[in-house]
Write a structure and sequence with these properties.
Elements: H1 2-8, H2 22-35, H3 39-47, H4 58-82, H5 93-118
Helix pairs in contact: 2-3, 4-5
Length: 124
């Protein structure tokens, strides 16, 4: 049992020195931070061929927030119609079917964005 503890608690004793330009250093540090890793861990994983996944892809999160807002607005319109609100009295069945279709396509769009967040970019 002590052998296992020593193996898991062992320290890395070898260091690699890699000269970089200041802008390269900044970019590596930025990417490591974006992935939620130390620079050493980031470089070690990249060097061993692991695919780095960021904690959050902010562009995709913004896209999900936009889609969620669209769904909220569409749902609000549907709710008004279902409660026979006078503001939606002019809406006919065709309008409601179009609204439901739009909600469905927006849900599909949201699903695609969610898949791209979960899947690594290389597999997308």
């Amino acid at each position: 049992m002590k052998n296992k503890e020593k193996q898991t608690g062992r320290k890395r004793g070898h260091h690699l020195r890699v000269p970089v330009f200041p802008e390269e250093k900044t970019e590596i540090e930025r990417q490591a931070q974006q992935a939620g890793m130390s620079v050493a861990r980031f470089l070690r994983e990249v060097g061993q061929g692991y695919q780095i996944r960021g904690i959050v892809d902010y562009e995709q999160v913004r896209e999900l927030a936009r889609i969620n807002g669209d769904l909220g607005r569409l749902g609000g319109l549907l709710k008004l119609w279902l409660t026979n609100d006078r503001r939606t009295a002019q809406f006919g069945e065709a309008t409601i079917r179009t609204l439901l279709s739009r909600i469905e396509s927006t849900l599909d769009e949201m699903g695609q964005v969610m898949k791209s967040v979960v899947r690594p970019r290389a597999e997308s």
